[in-house]
Amino acid sequence: MLAFATAAGCSDSPEKEDTTPPTVPAGLESFYSQKPSWKDCQDGFECTTVQVPLDYAKPSGEKVGISVIRLPAEDSSDRIGSLFTNPGGPGGSGVDFVRQAARAFGDDLRSRFDIVGFDPRGVADSAPVRCNTGPQLDDFFATDASPDSESETSALGDEGKEFAQNCETKAASQLRYVGTVNAARDMDVLRAALGDRKLTYYGASYGTYLGAFYAEQFPKNVRALALDGAVDPKLSSTELLIEQAKGFETALRAFADDCVKTGGCPFGGTADAVIAKIASFLAATDKKPLTSTRDSRKVTESLAVMGIARSLYVKEYWPVLRQALTQAIQQGDGTVLLTLADEMVEREPNGTYSNQTDANMAVNCVDKPNPPDLATYGKAAAEAKKAAPLFGPFVVWGGLPCVYWPVQTEEKPKPITAKGAAPIVVIGTTRDPATPYKWAENLAEQLSSGVLLTYDGDGHTAYLQGDPCITKATDDYLINTDPPEDGTTCP
What we know:
The protein is an alpha/beta fold.
């Protein structure tokens, strides 16, 4: 999934920084002063757990253990500190990310920094939110998310209610506290506990949102933040989904262009013809789901769209998508599409899921206000269908459980400025499916110290794709706190 990054070749020492110790929030001294006990956890990695309060307003109350992993710096004599990371989601395991990708970071970063990952509260091994069984999630994802009738819309509403009710039943005590504001506060505790005076951070996708919230709350504690595949904080919950759907449409057209240019494209001789063929295929699948040799599940239109979307995250998956669509269209075999869909939501062949979906919904639903009812939500879905005919309904209806969520916020979205923070580099990919490029432009503009770095390319996020220009610019910045010129474009 992740391409290896190339060496950046930077060896200058970082500039001298202000050595004034950061302020410790009152009442949290015991959390900030804890000294983690690291243990070997195979393949050169070390693991530990750091304690944070469940409710920062009641630090003496219940605690949450945050699971942390690190790959120690290769040159301990020239070590700068920790490079904290977050892979996105929300709901993605930062521990798994570092196990899979730490050695794909630039050589100079790995030499000078411990590469650190953590599971945010509610995720994976950090007091995970768990609401739904495997069969319940199977039903949720298979439900028709492009309703053509009142009965299909009602069925979607029932699924959304059940999802929310399951979380209220099984995880009610956690839901109020899993939002990004608390996760950002946890990150400051982690920074102090691991011995870093200021935060050095690489965040991808939702990880940019987490990083921006950190900078807003702790601007003076920012050393260097690289935010790759930015999320625009000022958008509402449904605005985000509509714009994301448009990003997938852009990426699908890039795939169609590539299919035609590669030659022998089985779906048509022009990009428009390819898009029309895929649309026709999905309409047919809506009426008659595909079969699969993977298991007895029917590959519905919703699962087919999910499989297509998964392939658009990584350009290296485009040949797989071509194979998946060929089998599905010509043979009625949805096996590869279903495999891709399962990968998207971390479903194992035995029918079990990670807690990614439950955690993703739990964080998203409490981070922003949600539409008040099914009818209002349906208007947003209709708007999405006009803006992004293939992906709009599926992306927007996927967030429907938030309408019924037991914990709601009235805190309206607003721009994040992080006034007083050191320079923050925002990286945007021009044809990113999941975090449209305009979000990177918007976040860089909102941040008082934002610097925009552009990757003219495909796929979701840029740094780990291995482009030498992106690698060097990012590594120079994280090592030397020397950002590229605002507006730099790679390659």
